Structures are given as structure tokens and as C-alpha cells.
Amino acid sequence: MAIEITADTDPHGLKLFDSNEQRQLSLRTDRPVTPVEVPTDLFCFPVDTSYRIETASIVFDHRYLVNVHAASGQSVAKLTDGTEYVLDDDVQFVGLDGPMKLYCRVDSPGTVEVGLNTIQLTFDEPVEVEIGARSLHKHPAGSITTPDDPASMMRAISAMASAMKTDTPERSWPTLRGHPPLIERGDELDVRTESAPLDTGVSIEVSPQLSQLYSVAPLSFYLSAPLVEGDTPAIHTESTSIPLRDENPFADDVARVLKHVFFLDCLVRTEGVYRYDLYERKQVEPHLPWDLEALYDESLSTRLEAYLEVPYELIEPHVPRWPLTAHVPDEPSAIEVLPFVVNELGIVRPSSGTKHSIDTEVASAATTRTPTALSDTDAHRKREHATLVRSARTTRRPTTDGIDSESTFPVVEPDVTDESIEHAWFGELAPQGASKATIEGYRNQLDRKSRTQHIDILVVCNDARMLDEHDLLDETYGSRELLPFDVTSRFGVSTDELATLLSDGGYDFLHYIGHATDAGLECSDGDLDVRTLESVDLGVFFLNACHSYEQGLALAQRGAFGGVATLGDIINEHAVDSGASLAKLLNLGFPLRGALEIISEWTVLGEQYLIVGDGSTDIAQSDGGAPTIVSVEPTDDPVLSFRTYPAKEFQIGSVTSPNVKTIDEIYLLPMHDVKTSVSVEQLRKYLTWIETPLVVDGQLRWNTELGLPTYLSEV
Predict the structure, then answer these.
(1) What's the predicted TM-score (pTM) here?
(2) H or E segment at 193?
(3) Mean pLDDT, rounded, for 670-674
(4) Kind and range of the H or E element at 595?
(5) Whole-angstrom Cα distance, residue 258 to residue 544?
(6) What is the rounded distance in angstroms from the CA atom of residue 401 to the CA atom of residue 399?
(7) 155 and 225 share one domain
(8) Which residues constitute the domain of residue 42?
(9) Are 587 and 476 in contact (CB under 8 A)?
(10) How many domains are there within the chain?
(11) pLDDT tens digit string along 214-247?
(12) 44 and 104 assigned to the same domain
């Protein structure tokens, strides 16, 4: 069973656990409850499991988006902070968007109250309530084998659209976009999918060049548009043709059309089941040449024609940040990465860039970037390690001109690095300004067995002079009361011990503190080269050591999902700050790509790190919505600026709303630079109850302790 529902006794209530995604959700009741399984067809929405309980109240200790639906499924109310909704005695569904999709089926009078970080359903007397839950886990919908000839590849790419579940504008919801079937190379074309792609009346003409086939794959998937061979790239609808590659490079034009169509689908779908007060609709609708309500009922082909009549420049400022751009080599083997990229609606570009070498040795401790500020509870831990670096050489080697030929490393800088939150490089060499993606990192997640309720973390510290970082981590991992973490710390481990921990430990996350060399990770009796291991049983990793890229790559190729490594030397003092920052972000539910973007922007060593493997992976769920970082202007009239990141349960096309009373609109996710003014008292309340990273006066701060942080006590 994808979701387990069990009774809880302290306090009374239910605990729901999704073993596929290692996500959990708890609710409190006013009395002991005994869940009784009931048919899932009691719900008008798809659910994996459903149970009935008897209670006079249900309380969720997190803030999620709340919708009230009529018996038909039509959304009748969206509830925000501080609102109360009265339920009548008809069948109604109270839906929550959290770490899993949850519905409460109610046919008795009551109220729903939404607080800053709580949701409460209250009834006049004990009543029966059905609880239904659906996992947000997506598994590939079949498999496709294809030879290397372009005609077969075009059919294979076209067949990925079999995972699309509707041709309505609701296809922009991530829950209605299944994971495309896997593709592997073989001697004959063989399509084994659960269903055929929908017939939308749309096709895409492209040349048989692999670079074009790969770049158009996400658009073909989203439009359920089969690929046809031709000399003039174009989108063909039922009544017209729309040329691609006008004045822009082909990949640019395809990316623009994908964003264009997706965004307008998100607006038009507000005339459907979920009639949100969408901020982006308010901004764009007055300038559109057609009526959203009328267009909602039109075919995909007709909508597409209408969408592309709208100048992209009109909507471009409101298009959400794209989560992923994949740089894919035009080689036959690269077709196998497409289902994983398309699953996130990632943009696909050729793996073209500029090759050069970077200096990997620290020439000076000085830096122009403002370092991460330590919280009051951390300040006494900071010590001076100005010359200690995390390589086999424990001090910086003097140089005469700042560059040593022995300390350079070949890299490639992709031609485009500013289009998405993460740029994933699938080509040769290590990238600069991008992550090093591996298909193994994606496949490893499909192969791993169901996970336990506990998040198992291994911290290895192999240098006593780096205990500062371990002590900070000891306060960070597992600091969230409602999530069960098991943290194991090991010091001075040998090569055999580390090999066993990696191969057999089954840890969800490894945080390694120590040194790395060309020969491997430094241990008490030598170096462990991960490349000598046959496999590892590990989820995510952070190798906070100098020159750890090759070892991180080996982990991702041998069983791990993904992680963070380094290309060069890192000064210990700064590595402590960056390591603690990354740990806190991961602990709060940020995926690797979001966490790394933040530390790259706001810490000294951020640009020394890169993701290896799958940048969408995480180690924990976020509480109360999508992972968010908040910039604060602490003036007499404080201004908050919100930036949200996509996560497994909050993929592009989801919606979100900041937990402040001054914002009552819903925004498309990933949301960025949404600003609002609040009163001093509202700021105090927000910072007291919401756990989130903050940027104050250009510095990254932390708000993980209950109460108002001292650095804002004078606001």
C-alpha cells in the first residue's frame, strides 16, 4: 500500500506515511480513534487509501492550501490565513495540498478554521469523517525500446505523451502529468505503455537531427503532439501551422513556446475545478484578446492557436521560474535521459559550451562576498582556521602569480546558465555554473526499495580540527519536532569502515567532513576511492571536502540519488559556514537545487560547490507549503519578499500563497520576488511561528528557534 494510515495515541489522532516518497502527515483528534477502512469510491477524487473515524474535531499542525469542494468535486472555497468556513450537512470535501494529497469527506455541519500554522475542523458533536489520501509519487508509465535510427526515435519520443492524463488546461497541474515511460536502446522498436497518447489534433514537424528531436521532446510531451519528419520545423494544429525557429536558435524557440502554452493553460484552468483567485491571471487577463471562460471548453488545438496569438513579451514577466534546463549531447545514448527531464517539463538544450581550466587552489583567504552570519547560539563556536583547507595539503600552497598549473581542473561552461533554477549538464567534463547530471542518479531512485518512516542520516567527521561543523550539524539535523530523524555520527573511520557504511548502511543522507584527494576520501588509515566500490546504498550526500567532485560522481553512478561536491580547495572556516547553511536548508525541506542556489548567492564558498546526480532530490519534506526563503527589510514598515522553490510535492504548475495576512492571492510556483508590507506586529508573529531562512541586510540568517530572533528585536 502506498500510504499507511495508523492510529496515534500521544496525542490522539492519525499518522499517514507514504513509504514511496518518505513523506508523512499527522492529524490530531479530540478523542481516541479507530480507523476503519472504507471504499475509495466514496471520494470523487482519486485516492490510494481511505479510512473512517469518529471525532468532534480534526487539527493539522501545519498550514497547507485548503480547498472546500462540493460533492461533484467543484471547488467552492479557497481558505487563507485567518478565515473560517461553515460546512453544511451536504457531502463536502475539505482538501489539503501537503506532503500528500488529503481529503476529508464530511456530511455534517461544522466549521473549518485556518490559522497561521494550523487548520482545524470542528463539529458540534462527534461525527463520522472519511479520510482519503493519495501519494504524489510518480513512477514511469511503461517502457519503450528504440533503435538508433531517427524514425524510431521520433516514435519513441512521441510515445512519452502516453503519461499525459487529460487534454484540458488541467494538464498544467503536476498531478495530471504522469512520469513518461522509460526509454532504452535496443534492436527493435517496442512500445509498452499503459495507454496510447491522447489524440489532440496537434503534431510537430522537425528534422531528423538528434539535437532537434531532443529539444522538442518536452513540448511534444506537453501537447501530446507526435513528431513527424520534415524540412521546416513547425507546429501543426487542426487548421494552421505555426513555424518554429524563426529568428532564434531552435532550442530557444521551443523553450519559449513551452513556457507560453503552459503559462496560459495555468490561467485558463482557473475556469475549471479550482477557481483560484490567481495573481498572474489578474495581471494578464485585461490584455488578452479572448475570454478565458469561453476558451476553457475548446479543444487543445484551438486553445493552442489562441495562445500563440498572444505576444510572448506580454506574459514573459509573469511566467514562473523554470525548474530545470538539461544540456544533452546529440548522441543516441542520450535519449535515455529524456523521460527524467521531461517528467519535470525541463527545457532541453544541446550540450554546447566553452572549455577551459579553473584554478582549484586557494590563493587567498580574502573574499569580496559577505559571509553567512552566525546566529547568536552559533557565535561562540566560530574559531580561527584561516589557513586550514580541506584537501590532503592542510595549508594553502604559496603561489607567485595566483595560478599553479598543478592545481588547475578542466571544466566546461554551458552556453546558457541563467534560464532555470538548475542547469543540468549531461555532457563530458565537469560543468561550471551548472550541475553534473547523471542518468544513474535518476535510475537509482526507481530501484530503491520502500523507505522507512525514520530519516537516517550519517555524519562522518575524519578530522578533529573540523569538529565545529559537526557540532553545528548536531543541532540542525532532526531539529524538526514532527519529523523522525535518526542521526549517526562517526569519527576517524577507517577505509573498511567507510566502505561498509556506504555499501550496506542504507542511509538517506551522508554528510562527510574531512579531506579528499585524487585517490579518494581520506580515512584514518588511508584513502577510500569510491570508484573501487561495486555499489552504494545511499540516498543523498554532501562531501564537504576539497576536490570531492570525482568521489561524488562515483557515488551518483553507484547507487546514490545525488549530492553536493567541490571542484577545488575550500578554507575550513568558510566550509563550516557553508556546510551548516546547506544542512539547515536540507533539514527544512529544500531540494538540492534550491539549497545550492541559496548558498551560492549568500555564502562565501557557494560557488565552489556543485550538484552531482539529480538536483531535485531532498532529504525531508517541507512544512506548510513549498520551500521558501524570505528577504526582510527591517524598517518601521517592514517589507517581505518571498521566493519559493519547487519540490517533489510542489512541482511547476502547483500554486502557493505566503502565510501572511497582507497577501490573499494565489501564485504560480516557483514564485519569486513577491513583496508585501507588514506591520511590526505581523512581522513578529510571522517570525515567531514560521521556520524559514531569511535574508536580512544582505546576509543569510536563520529562524529555527521559537520566538523573535535577536537580530530583529529592535524592529
Answers:
(1) 0.89
(2) strand 190-193
(3) 88
(4) helix 592-602
(5) 37
(6) 6
(7) yes
(8) 3-134
(9) yes
(10) 4
(11) 999 999 999 999 999 998 999 999 999 999 976 6
(12) yes
